[in-house]
Description:
By secondary structure, chain A is an alpha/beta fold. Chain A has helices at about 25-35, 65-75, 150-155, 165-170; strands at about 40, 55-60, 75-80, 80-85, 100, 120-125, 135-140, 145-150, 160, 170-175. By secondary structure, chain B is an alpha/beta fold. In chain B, the strands form 4 sheets. In chain B, strands 2-1-5-4-3 form a 5-stranded antiparallel sheet.
Amino acid sequence: MAGVCLSLTVLLFSQAGMTTAPASLERAVKASFLFKFAPFVEWPPAAFTTSDRNFMICVIGEDPFGTVLNEVVRGQKIRERPVSVRRLGPTGNTTGCHILYAGRSSDAGYAPFAALTGQPVLTVSDHGSGPSGAMIDFVMQSGRVRFQIDDSAARANGLRISSKLLGLALAVNRK
Amino acid sequence: MTDDPMANPADRPGVGKIVAQMATPLSAVVIALLLLIAGLAFALQLEQIGRAEKLRQTTVQAQTLASGIAAPLAFSDDAVLKENLNALRADPQIVAAAAYDSEGRFVAGYARPPATFPKMVAVKQPETLPSALTVTVPVMQGNTRLGTVFLHSTLDSLSRRLTRYLGIGVIVVVASVLIVMLAASYSSLREAHQKLQAEAASRRQAEEALRQSQKMEAMGQLTGGVAHDFNNLLMVASGGLDLMERTSDPAKQERLKAGIRQAIDRGSKLTRQLLAFARRTPLHPEVIDLRERLGGMDALLERSLGESIEVVMHLPDDLWRIEVDASELEVAILNIALNARDAMPRGGVIVIEATNVAGAADVPDRVNITVTDSGTGIAPDLVAKIFEPFYTTKGVGQGTGLGLSQVYGFARASGGDILVDSIVDKGTAITLALPRTLLIPRQKHGSSQTMATFNRQRILLVEDDDSVAHAVGGMLHELGFQTERATNGEEAWQRLERQPDFDLVLSDMIMPGNVSGIDLARKIREELPDLSTMLMTGYSAAAASAAKEGVALLSKPFSIEDLSSQIAATLDRKADGERRFD
C-alpha cells in the first residue's frame, strides 16, 4: 500500500481545478468522506446495543455540510443499518452516535470530545479550525482534502481502524 | 476378402478370424478417425479446462485488486489507485483494467489498444469471448459497496494454444498413420497369402494332371504288349473250343477245357490290372505286403516288357510292410522296368529285389526295392536329369519322358527316396527306398473256395445282355437258385412291385433305360429293405460309385466260385444286419 504522505484528489469533480477548490466542493468531499470512514472502522458490539436501529452520524458545533451530508447518506446502509444524521446542540447528548463530527464553535466551554472518553464513537474534526482531540482530522493540502489519524485514541475507545485507511492518512499517531 | 476355408484348416473361427476380418484398410481408417476425434475432444476438453482456470485466475486477480483499491477509491486517492492498477500491467494478458465508483462511473484505468474499457460498468457475470474474457467484481469494504473493478484478459493466442496441442496432435497423427500402414501391410500380406494358396492349389491340379498323364504313358506302353497277348489268349480259347467240338474223347476235352480256363484267367487278370492302372484316383496309401504285391505283377511285367526280357524277383519272406498307394507303386515299378528294358535293346535280365534296411537314430527303417538291369547305363551328368518331367533320350513317339518323373513323384509323395547307381555300359540299379510301417494290412475277405449250396432261394437277375444273362443264369442254376430274369431296371422294379418274392436281386450296373443298377439298388434299399441286392459290372468307374453306396459288387468277369462266395457273403451280411438292428 501507499506510504504515509499521500495526496488526495477531489475525485467527484476532478475537472473542477486542483489548486483552488471552492468551499462548497470541500464541504461535499468532507461529507462524503465522513460517511465513507464507516466501512473502514470496526466498532465493538457494545456500540450497537441501543434500541435505535440506525447507524448514527452526529454533527455538533457549527454544521458546515447542510443538506449535503443528508444527500450523501440517503439510502445508504452501514452494517445493515440505515444511516441517519443527527445534529446536536452545543451540549447535545451523544448517546447513540457512531460517528461524531465536531465543527468549529465560538462557545468558550466547547469541548465536545471530553465526555466521550472510553466511548466507541469515531470522532472527526477539522485540523486547526475545529476542536482538538479528534481521532480523525481533515487537513487541506494543495487544495485537496486529506486527513490524519490518531490511531491510539481510537484504540483506547475500542475502535479498530483498517490499515487501508491508515495507509491513506497524512499522519498516523501511534503510541 | 474371404478366406478359403479349405486352404486354412488350422484357422479356428475364433478371435483370430474376427481380428483378421476387422483388419481391413477401411476399419483401420475408421480407427484412425476415431483416434483423431478422441484427440480433438481431448484438446477441446483441455481448452475448456484452460478457460475455466483462466477465468478463475482473472477473477482472483480482480478481487485482489478490488481489495487493494478499496481505500484509495473511497477517498479519491488517484495516485494510489493508479499505482495499484498499473501493477497489473506486468501481466501481459490483462489488456484492460479499470476502477469505477459506487455509482458505476469511471475513475481510473488503462487499456492496451485495441482493448477498451467501458465508461460505465455494472457488476455482471463474467463474459467469455473466443479469445478473451472480461470480469467485473465489486469493491467492498465491510458490507458497503465502494465501487467496481473491471478486468479484460486475453486468452492465449490461437497459435500459442495450437503449439501446446501440437505434441498431442503429432502423436495422434503418427498413431493413425501407423494403424493405417499396419492394416495396409497386413491386408497385402493376406492378399499374398491368398495368391500363394491359389497357386498351390493350381499346382496341385497340375501335379494331378501330370500324374495322370504319366499313368497314360505307362498305359500306352502296356497296351501294345497286352493287345498282342490278348489275341494269343483269344486264339487259345477259340482254338480250344473248335477242337472240343471235334473230339469226343473225355480226357482230351478235359485238357482243352483246362487250357481255355487258363487263358481266360490270364486275360481277366490282365484286364483287372489295366483297369486298376487307368483308375484316376488321388494317392490313396494303404498298408501292403510287398511280396504279395510285386509277386502279383509278374504277368503284367512279362506282357509289357516283351519276350526278350526275363524278370527275376528276389522277395524274402520277412519283408517289412510299407504304406503306399499300391497302384502308383505298381506303375512306378513298371516304369522303372520299362526303362530298364529300353536300356537293353538286345534283351537281358531285370532283377527286382526287395530288402529290409534298418534305420539309424534319425533315419527310419526302410524297405529298398531295387530294379537292376545290365543295360547301357546312364552317364553321371545325366543321372540328376532322368527324373525331370519330359526328359527323354528316346526318339519322337517312343516316349514322353514322364515315366521316371512319375517314379520320383511317387517316391517323394510316399515319404521315401530314390537312389540311382549306374555304370556306363555295365548297367543301372534304381532303388526305391520306402519307409517301413508298423500298421497291419486290412484284412481281406477270405474267399472260401468251397461252394455253398443254396436251398432253392430265389434270385431276380437283371441283365440286358442275353449271353451274359444266359451264362450267369446258368451259374446260378448250378448253385441251386431259382432265377427270374428282367432285361432292365424298370422291368425289374415293376416285377418287384408286383410281388417282392425274392431273396436277392443281382443286377448289372449299366443298362439301357432310365433306371441303372445303382438306382435300382437304392430304390430297393429305401422301399424293400428286407431284400438283398448285389451289383455286377466290368466298368471300374461304376464300381467306385457302387462302393460309395455300400452295395455289394461283383467284378466281371467272375467265376462260379466268386459268384457263390459273394452271394453267400451278401445274404449273410443281410442276416447279420437284421439281427443287429432288429
